[in-house]
Design a protein that fits this description.
16 helices, about 425 residues, 6-stranded mixed sheet, binds ligand F0G
């Protein structure tokens, strides 16, 4: 039977206990599985066989790997057949970064348009197992959209805490459409996170932020699915955006579990990229300190990762240690240009996802990454999540504020501005200039 284990003091607790952090030392909790006979080639063949199955739990890119997920009665599983997201070659992006090849695994192709669905299927399923009827999260947008959808599927009430005026409209519209109660708080994500934790501790609301270890169990299957899609051939490096640091932690745990079970014999280097204005992990990494110092008033146009006090940093650091990983930061200009380039590959993504390409380009230029490396970058959210950002960039109207509060225009270096044309045949032919 899997247990909850504190990553700090190593105390064990049953998975049926409704806790989010260690009751003894407040450390983060992991779901830990027995190292049984389900290993190596046997695991690969069972998981590969399920890809051809007609059952929902086999088709889900999460539950297909259920031997390494919390034990759940099949009838309790709440799935939207998430996962199965494409890996695409991106030749223009590769050239832009100075790599010989590069591929993107696009988690924005999940049911609600972000990777959060992978964690929400396991999170909501655990909520159901514990008998919860209402769930809550703080969010920069995607978690709330995903939780709202899965809660609706499970017949639960959803409460989302979002920073006022700071989330992309696509995400807000989803939470509203899926019937969540939306609380816009005067404050930033870090305030919303602190408050939802306090409220969940004193109420029946079940907390579904990534501090909840059951969320990360779903998200770790990104590693499993990526390996399965690649015929179990390891990449050299996996590049992932860092916000609250749940996803990078989850992916590292996924690869680590595959290694413990002899499915792989080394870890790909987990490489976490942050926005310069919301870079607490990068600062910690550079200063080689033991603890993270929050960045108050974090700022970036990539609102999904506008986070100054990430909850899962100890797990992210563990993943970096396991995998000889690295951390990089990128500017608003670098993010905007990289996003436009990913668009030119016909792929597209939301701004936070584009930190991956921006980071790879920067690391190649500095000589830290070999252009021959086999790199998979994780695109975390769909291009339609934040259309304002994209349109403003192409119209030459994207601006941000720097730390001193000054407004700065982003240079639209790869703009594809639309043309205003008089509605006549002659004007159109002239404008087309064929
Ligand atoms: N990319 C996107 C599109 C996100 O929505 C998030 C996080 C991240 C990257 C960063 O992942 O937090 O696990 O390091 N969004 C959260 C939310 C915070 O509320 O939707 P992380």
């Amino acid at each position: 039977m899997p247990v909850l284990r504190c990553i700090n003091c190593q105390s064990d607790f049953p998975t049926s206990q409704r806790i989010y952090v260690c009751p003894k030392c407040a450390g983060l909790l992991d779901v830990v599985y027995e190292l049984n006979k389900f290993q190596g080639e046997q695991a690969v063949s069972v998981w590969d066989r399920r890809r051809a199955s007609a059952e929902s739990i086999d088709q889900s890119g999460v539950w297909r790997f259920r031997e390494l997920l919390p034990e759940t009665d099949e009838s309790e599983i709440v799935t939207m057949i998430e996962g199965n997201t494409q890996i695409w070659d991106a030749p223009r992006s590769a050239e832009y970064a100075g790599m010989n090849r590069l591929s993107f695994k696009h988690l924005g192709m999940n049911p609600t348009g972000s990777f959060k669905d992978l964690g929400m299927t396991t999170g909501i399923t655990q909520a159901k197992r514990l008998g919860a009827t209402s769930v809550a999260c703080a969010s920069t947008g995607n978690t709330s959209a995903s939780m709202a959808a899965y809660a609706a599927r499970a017949g639960m009430k959803a409460f989302v805490f979002i920073p006022s005026g700071q989330i992309a409209l696509g995400k807000l519209s989803q939470a509203l459409d899926y019937g969540a109660v939306v609380l816009q708080l005067e404050g930033d994500f870090d305030d919303a996170m602190r408050l939802v934790r306090e409220v969940a501790d004193e109420s029946p609301l079940y907390l579904l932020n990534s501090v909840n270890p059951f969320r990360l169990e779903g998200q770790k299957t990104i590693a499993f699915e990526m390996m399965q899609q690649r015929g179990w051939q390891l990449p050299d490096r996996v590049v992932v955006p860092g916000g609250n640091l749940g996803n990078s932690s989850a992916i590292a745990k996924g690869f680590h579990e595959l290694m413990e079970r002899g499915v792989i014999n080394r870890m790909p280097r987990i490489t976490i990229i942050q926005a310069e204005g919301a870079n607490p992990l990068y600062r910690m990494w550079e200063a080689r300190t033991e603890t993270l110092t929050p960045v108050p008033g974090a700022t970036t146009l990539a609102t999904a990762i506008k986070i100054g006090n990430p909850v899962s940093w100890p797990k992210a650091m563990r993943g970096l240690r396991w995998s000889a990983g690295e951390v990089e930061q990128v500017t608003e200009q670098e993010i905007a240009d990289a996003k436009a380039m990913i668009g030119r590959d016909g792929i597209g993504c939301e701004p936070a996802s584009a930190v991956t390409l921006a980071g790879i380009k920067k690391m190649i230029a500095a000589g830290g990454v070999n252009p021959d490396e086999d790199v998979v970058a994780i695109l975390t959210g769909h291009v339609l999540k934040d259309p304002d950002y994209t349109v403003n960039y192409h119209a030459g109207m994207l601006s941000c504020t720097n730390k001193s509060g000054e407004k700065m225009l982003i240079e639209s270096r790869y703009a594809n501005a639309f043309m205003r044309v008089h509605a006549s045949r002659d004007a159109i032919l002239k404008a087309l200039d064929l």
